[in-house]
């Protein structure tokens, strides 16, 4: 089997690629190409690379941990479509992205014997969009790295805080979370946001008078991120859209209570181990955060339920699902 090894980094697809690639039982040959995998130059380099190898290896699978297939590969292949956010969120779409999905991704999904995705929500959306037989779409799920556990150092902030592990894209809904912070009755609670400061979130903090309670952490490596989870009163995911939502199970594995959106994939990931809220309603988000912070019995229940639920997500199981599906697709 050949593996698209271009996807690296501390983000959803990067984590998925690293954790599954390191666990395959069968021999795997990495294939890479220079450039951003979704840039025009990166796509061209990938096609050139796979065209050369594909001519010689028509009986071997090419597996991508992301949505980027190779048009030039002559043998069987499988892609992993984590979500359709590039189509479903207008602010994160473009004519070029829509064309790529319509003319490259959709025919690939329809042609391949198997396509992978990470949640039942994403599977339903993928089947609806592509018209592919649901039997040919396999839900693998996601899991967490070993660094995320209850054991280890705890970040000491000197004040209570709520943590949101996110980027600055519109679907992460950070400005509404800032408004929710301003509406909380617990006025000493701060909001920690991973990543760099972005204009929309800073503008919201100024507008709602909470600049002194909002902190941008910058990039955080896994070991340090686990300590931030352990130190948080609550981990919150008010996203408008997720294909899975790995921070929810990272937080649970670290023994942190979770408040998350009631939309897209998050209900199936969180289950009854967290509080679900309307991400469009800052008042509802604030009320849920206040409730978890104030109600010690509820907080304890969510922590206990989260620890148990996080055990249901295993990279070993995910990798076995992938290998089984590929074997059946041959």
* Share of helix, binned: 40-55%
Number of strands: 12
Mean pLDDT: 95
What is the CATH topology assignment of the largest domain?
A: Rossmann fold
The number of distinct helices, counting runs of at least 4 residues, comes to 13
Assigned CATH superfamily of the largest domain: Glycogen Phosphorylase B
Secondary-structure element string: EHEHEEHHEHEEHEHEHEHEHEHHH
Please describe the biggest sheet, giving its number of strands, its sense, and whether it closes into a barrel. Answer: 6 strands, parallel
**Spatial strand arrangement across the major sheet:** 9-8-7-10-11-12
Low-confidence stretches: none
Q: What class would the helix/strand composition place it in?
A: alpha/beta
| CA gyration radius, whole angstroms | 21 Å
So what's the CATH class of the largest domain? Answer: Alpha Beta
DSSP strand content: 5-15%
CATH architect. name of the largest domain: 3-Layer(aba) Sandwich
């Amino acid at each position: 089997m050949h593996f698209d090894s271009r996807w690296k980094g501390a983000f959803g697809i990067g984590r998925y690629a690293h954790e599954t690639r390191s666990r395959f039982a069968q021999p795997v040959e990495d294939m890479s190409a220079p450039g951003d995998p979704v840039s025009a130059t990166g796509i061209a380099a990938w096609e050139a690379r796979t065209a050369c190898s594909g001519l010689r290896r028509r009986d071997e699978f090419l597996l991508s941990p992301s949505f980027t297939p190779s048009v030039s590969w002559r043998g069987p292949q499988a892609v992993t479509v984590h979500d359709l956010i590039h189509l479903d969120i207008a602010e994160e779409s473009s004519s070029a992205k829509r064309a790529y999905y319509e003319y490259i991704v959709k025919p690939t999904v329809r042609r391949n014997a198997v396509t992978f995705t990470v949640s039942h929500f994403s599977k339903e959306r993928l089947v609806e969009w592509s018209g592919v037989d649901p039997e040919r779409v396999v839900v693998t799920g996601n899991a967490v790295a070993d660094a995320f556990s209850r054991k280890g150092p705890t970040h000491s902030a000197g004040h209570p805080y709520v943590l949101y592990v996110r980027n600055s894209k519109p679907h992460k809904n950070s400005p509404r979370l800032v408004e929710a912070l301003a509406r909380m009755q617990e006025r000493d609670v701060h909001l920690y946001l991973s990543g760099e400061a972005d204009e929309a979130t800073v503008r919201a903090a100024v507008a709602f008078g909470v600049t002194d309670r909002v902190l941008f952490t910058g990039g955080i490596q896994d070991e340090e991120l686990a300590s931030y989870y352990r130190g948080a009163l609550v981990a919150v995911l008010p996203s408008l859209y997720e294909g899975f939502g790995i921070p929810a199970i990272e937080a649970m594995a670290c023994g942190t209570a979770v408040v998350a959106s009631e939309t897209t994939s998050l209900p199936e990931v969180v289950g009854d181990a967290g509080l679900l809220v309307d991400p469009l309603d800052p008042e509802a988000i604030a009320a849920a955060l206040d409730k978890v912070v104030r109600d010690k019995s509820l907080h304890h229940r969510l922590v206990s339920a989260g620890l148990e639920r996080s055990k249901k997500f295993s990279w070993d199981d995910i990798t076995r699902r992938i290998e089984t599906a590929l074997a059946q697709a041959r």
